[in-house]
Predict the 3D structure of the following.
Amino acid sequence: MSNAETQPLSSKDGQQFTDKDGWLTRTEYLSRTIYWGIHAASLLVLAVGAPVGAVLLGVATYAVRVFGITAGYHRYFSHKSFKTSRAFQFVLAWIACSATQKGPLWWSGTHRRHHRYADAPGDPHSPRQGFYYAHQGWVFDPRWEGTPSEAMRDFSMYPELVWLNRYHFVPPLVLAVACYAIAGFPGLVWGFAVSTTLLWHATYSVNSIAHLFGSRRYETGDTSRNNWLVALLTFGEGWHNNHHYYMASARNGFFWWEIDMSYYVLRALAALGIVWDLRLPTPTILDGGSRRIERVQEAA
């Protein structure tokens, strides 16, 4: 990697812009217009109604993209909790990118920063700065706009991921066109606008609700909590105290009664040989015994 590739393009405090950030990332007001515009477009359900095909399309695009975020951006790119091929790695990144939460290097690098400074100065979205800030206010904070390239050197070596991070608006556009082609204008509203808005706030709930409301099985030094409702909405991410305790795990629902849909899908993909080496907590870790010995570093 050349020095030119790592030079910041902006002098903002926090995460600086690099050549891995595309033009849309650096156009703050356009990004905000798109964000709130998609929220507003969701209200068009009042005009289009609820055609069964369009609603089912919305359910499908929500479910597939939740898996892309939880299993792809989070458990794979942020924590490397399982292994896969380079081809399926790109598939995961594309699906997650279609959730309209920017690119894999930005998302996962920012999440690694969250673990490094969890609920301390430097955490991008701690509820100690207020519920709204933790939920979505941080998204508009210029400190976190750029990709933290230094935290993502392991995946920055893949040019296809760098391209996707730079042109992160392409997968959402492709999805929006596909939704319109499948079910017309109602399909665009339900399959993209409504689905994306709900997915945003479900994901944000992990940063806000799951740090304020729920139970704490493990002492983690932060405010993470297990919240069963957030877990259901996010396919397992709501078992957040478990995750902060042992972040390398491919399974956030540590026990059988903790529903973790992303892990179940990963198990099915493992049976097919698409993913492998799923990292799971040992009995000692589950018991809260030798955490400091067996816990893997957040950026490992």
User: Anything to note?
Assistant: The CA atoms of residues 166 and 197 lie 22 Å apart.
